[in-house]
């Protein structure tokens, strides 16, 4: 295991792994997935090569800012999700829990443990933004304390008015300068503009993808939307690789839509999955839904919520995007999003995955539930854990899903009658 | 006098007083919690607040954008208690000039909200008078702090709000050679822990908790909203804030022989800070006891035993 940990920090490991992994996954004839694997090997290889500075960021920090800075972004939360996919989180989570608490987010605990195992590419700088949850400030500050690397925080206000946008914009301008100074690089501002231009083009393709996914039957599985698609939208925006990935995804979905092919053999119900994540370790939730004809037609995390912007000032544009985030600020933003998704994706039921250790999303689950149930749509709060397999109760989860399915069926019979 | 409840030390109580309301720090005396309207993995204090609101409600309630749980509590209260007048103050995480100017605007909006609540706008003169009154109470508090008050008594006096109106019940500490302890964390509802600590020979230097001495210091002169913003952002910071917290924590740890972290369950800011606190205590060679609070109000036998065992090493 120690050898593997050491290998993960070697650029040669990623150089060798990249063609092999791409060849292996290409058997599935899923081009977007192959592009994701290729991207992952590239970005982790770049981070280990250390020719460019490595900047750790949280998922909702605009990654195009880091590419525009001329640095390599590394997202500890996403890396934890990948580790969970391979079912390797037990050790790191146990290590992380001894430093933090078992009550905080398992993705962060896992990342803290991985840091202690010396698996993660060492950072030159840590930047995070606070609009989503408390962890994005507190955890990254704790990482900064442990690594001795400076941490820059983008303090995003609760309000979304003009003053708030100016407050964010001014900080972004300062952080860009400070980061260049701390990293000792003089990347011109033009690089950031280029990165934003690619990001805009990618976002336009993402909107096409979101539109195509309204088709019935559902052409693309939400479970994949919450894994590598979300991974690419958090990690690759602002790069040509990201653009190519979303173009390939659009083409794949378009082909299915043209042929009226759903991802399930027989689609009986369409559900909306709320929360940014799902359990990534091996579990039967998705197969249970698939086998019973329940399609995850869409997932909250992938909706392109940001406004279409174009301006000369990159910081203005980024501030606009950051402040538009529906998960920051009052819950009305999220309610509006959920209602829109229910309409657009012709949803029969809503599953709110309540990840243990996540306050920002789960604490709003009751209010969201009131809205959804008010529309006569069945709603399930599914408690669980995205990264910690030991915090997952298969019996309880399956009982809840079974009951939810029965409610969906009853409602369908009622509507038919 | 009608009461306006508030939930955090960053609320400028001067304005509430200026509007003619009694500012009431909401620290429920009952451990009863609402387990329905918020998710199970949310801080027990917030659930206790929800439970209290079902029994009695003030004229208005002021929230702070202090943590995820508080933000969602604000949402839940608006949703499930629609007749209650509520307001949330968007406090920045930094006390630099930009933060102070931003908070000044927020405070000005808050004064408008209070004006609407009482039916007429606040006058600058009223605000200045309230600031002067609160500064006077601060002076009385700082005087008594010089005389080594008992931490449990002090905490009980501060539960009514900061700066406290009544300090008569605060007794002074006796005896020398006690084990100096830093008590840190967020809300310490079980003030009996401090009595217990002192009975066992401990001496709590400063209760570094939200229900302790984290209120604002003297509010200066000049434009009142700006002065309030400055005073409230420069007060002893909580774990949510950027800036001097780490340095102050290290300095406080150096001054004591032992550290007790009392953190309510699911309180993320302090649970993450725990990693840093552990590091500081290790470097400074101070033992650390982490107690998990469940908003029990009283002190459980389990906690008594752990505190007793913790102080045993100095006997």
Describe this structure in words.
The complex is a heterodimer of chains A (417) and B (315). By secondary structure, chain A is of the alpha/beta class. Chain A contains 18 helices and 8 strands. In chain A, the strands form 2 sheets. A 4-stranded parallel β-sheet of chain A has the order 2-1-3-4, sandwiched between helices. In chain A, strands 6-5-7-8 form a 4-stranded parallel β-sheet, with helices on both faces. Chain B has 2 domains: 122 residues, Rossmann fold, CATH 3.40.50.11890; 145 residues, 3-Layer(aba) Sandwich (Rossmann fold), CATH 3.40.50.11900. Chain B is built from 11 helices and 8 strands. Chain B has a 4-stranded parallel β-sheet, sandwiched between helices. In chain B, α3 links the parallel β3 and β4. Chains A and B meet through α8, α9, α16 and α17 of A and α3, α4 and α10 of B.
In percent, how much strand structure appears in the residues of chain A? 5-15%
Q: Determine the oligomeric state from the structure.
A: heterodimer
Distance between the termini of chain B: 50 Å
Strand order of the biggest β-sheet of chain A: 2-1-3-4
Structural class of chain B: alpha/beta
How many extended strands of chain B? Answer: 8
The global form of chain B is globular
Compressed to H and E, one letter per element, the order of chain A equals: HHHEHEHHHEHEHHHHEHEHHEHHEH
Instruction: Compute the number of strand runs of chain A.
Output: 8
Query: Kindly state the mean pLDDT of chain A as a whole number?
Result: 94
Low-confidence stretches of chain A: none
Mean pLDDT of chain B: 93
Structural class of chain A: alpha/beta
**Main CATH class of the largest domain in chain B:** Alpha Beta
Tally of individual domains of chain A:
1
- Helical run tally of chain B: 11
Please provide the ordered H/E string of secondary-structure elements of chain B: EHEHEHEHHHEHEHHEHEH
The CATH architecture of the largest domain in chain B would be: 3-Layer(aba) Sandwich
Separate helix tally of chain A: 18
